[in-house]
Design goal:
Chain A: GO terms for molecular function: long-chain fatty acid--protein ligase activity. The complex is a heterodimer of chains A (352) and B (359). By secondary structure, chain A is α/β, with parallel strands linked by helices. Chain A contains 10 helices and 14 strands. In chain A, strand 13 and strand 14 form a beta hairpin. In chain A, helix 2 crosses helix 3 and helix 9 runs parallel beside helix 10. Chain B is α/β, with parallel strands linked by helices. Chain B is globular and about 60 Å long. The two termini of chain B are 27 Å apart. Classes of the chains: A alpha/beta (352), B alpha/beta (359).
Amino acid sequence: MKDWANIIFSDTLSFKEKAKQVFEYQFEQNPVYRRYCEALDEIKTSRHSELVSESHATQNNDSEILKRVQDDRESIPLLPIKAFKDADVTTRTDAEAELIFKSSGTSDMQRSIHRVHNPELYDKSLLKGFRHFYNLDNAVIWGYTPGYADNPHSSLIYMIQKLIDQDNSGLSRFLPLGEPVNPGAIKEVQRQGKQLILFGAAFGLLDLLEMDDINLPSNSIVIETGGMKTHRREISRSELHRRLAKGFRLDGSRIHSEYGMAELLSQAYATGKWFSTVPWMQVTIRNPENPNEILPPYEEGLIGVIDLANVHSCSFLLTGDKGVMDKDGRFKVLGRWNPRDLRGCNFLIDED
Amino acid sequence: MTDTQQRIDTLIKATENWLSDDNLYLKDAIDRTVREGYFSFEDINYAIEAIKKSISILAIEEWVEQAGLNDKHDASDQNVLCLHAGNLPLVGFQDALATLLSGARYTGKISRKDPYLLPTFLNEVKKTDLWSDRDVQWTHRLDDFEGMPHDAIIFAGSESSVSGVKNSIQKLDLAKPDARFLIRTAHFSMAYLDRKDEEALQALTEAIFRYGGKGCRSAAIIVSPFSLAELKAELTNHAKSFWLENPQHEYPSPKIKQQFAYNEAVERSQLWLEYFLLQEGGLELDQDFVCYWIEGDESKLKELATTYRDQLQSIYVTDSEIDLADRDLEVEHLSNAQQPAIDWKPDGVDTVEWLIQEK
């Protein structure tokens, strides 16, 4: 088997070349993705009425499909991310996964399951990715989330644990939930000349602020990991950042965001208003009515992701998130894409 | 003769005139609607025939009686604003008729997606002695009514659209401070198919495919003891025959191809028809031209009726003995899916009864 880590994190290979290799591998080895590509290809070249049969006949010439995407990365089909709920999205159908990540949700909800066959690759992706944006060597990482032992299937908590493990000072840790931050611990971070980086979900961080006044050192960074909409509460990202900056007594520029999910093994970070990706991940904005179409900058659509670290599952994914991109390839996450209520009567002020 | 009876008789007469074969205004409106691409001729014809079939003096009198409408309990002191959607031809007809029947003054915002058909009916009403220009008004632009506050406002909306509509109503001062709102939110219907004879499949075909499946009375979920695979050949033949007689007016977006490919990817049984996708399971209800097939019995039907209660308009059955009364939902015969009775209750609310309620 190829040394995928060397390929994916290579500084010499172009993204296009890496993507091509990963596509070929996943087309060959991931039955779910292969069926998706073949069916899309078949439907493009057939009359609709000829597709009445129960399943697609695999008449397509594989090399033709591969050839079509060879020179055009943008034509690589993006698999809807919900496939992680409906099927086993993996290239290693015969092997037991070493790690299993699940999307958050209640027990009666259908959750995404991401089987990770090469945890070392995820470790490398998350650490190299974090270092792409931050100086991990001088950082103390705090996570105001449940600990890893309580949530072994959370990719976010796994990531925070790995970041914590990199710090030898003993100051990095998960903060106990429901307890105010110990001011002495903050002082100790300062005393050791370290930079504090605090991770937490939107309302978790707001709840932490509710408990006590927290005055973080001015060079600290708070990274919110999303969760702006829950069953009970909803807040906009800008309002959240405003309240976090005020509550932690930090400049607004110290409040950052992380974009990740159980189905992805790479993360994007926003150190300002826009998210940027790591070099082995690319984002495009897709037309929700025609996901093959990439929308121009500043048009809202569905966020499409190519995450090469997903080499053993599927790297080419269409999320259910709404986003917009600027002309430099940075993007914003605007929440979940809510399709208009298409069926039935619906008086729309702009249309009716 | 009572005022109520006078309104019934006059509306029946106006409707007869409107639907008569020599009504050139209606013919012209149909022609323009087809020419300008709003709806197909076949769908318009079907909608008109459905109205013709549903209207009779007896049917209206029954409606009036069950709604409790009489000269003492009417809406004659009210101004009612109807914001008509335009997803189907003449979809606003029942609201307009109910408002006029109730004795209220009617203000209609005619949909720009169905601009010609309903006004031909309203013009017939205005020709009568009972209703004047002041009592029956309509426009295609909501701001034409700016500064005309109403006692009651009727429209169909959704979680995402209601706030925008309400803001516009407030901005244009279209509602009195104590105005009542009848906002309908049901979006689709469900059918239970426990027979696979010709008659049942024919009715199912109409329920799914008529109007491109865009009505809230269109069946978007089919629960059946039979699997989709079992009925594929029959459904394909019925759909093909349907589209031969009723050429599809609107086509699905390319997104549906992705859904087809996705179903293949996750090995979900599906039936791709010329303009529609039927798939087993994967209930998402997030796009047009997709109908969901669920293999199951009456208990599955009841379970889904509970799950989708807030979005569900009607449940259709082939056997009227199925009792879903405890679900507090309309249960109708499958063959009536696209041909509702004139007194049918959108979202379970009798519009006339609602209009005459005391504030």
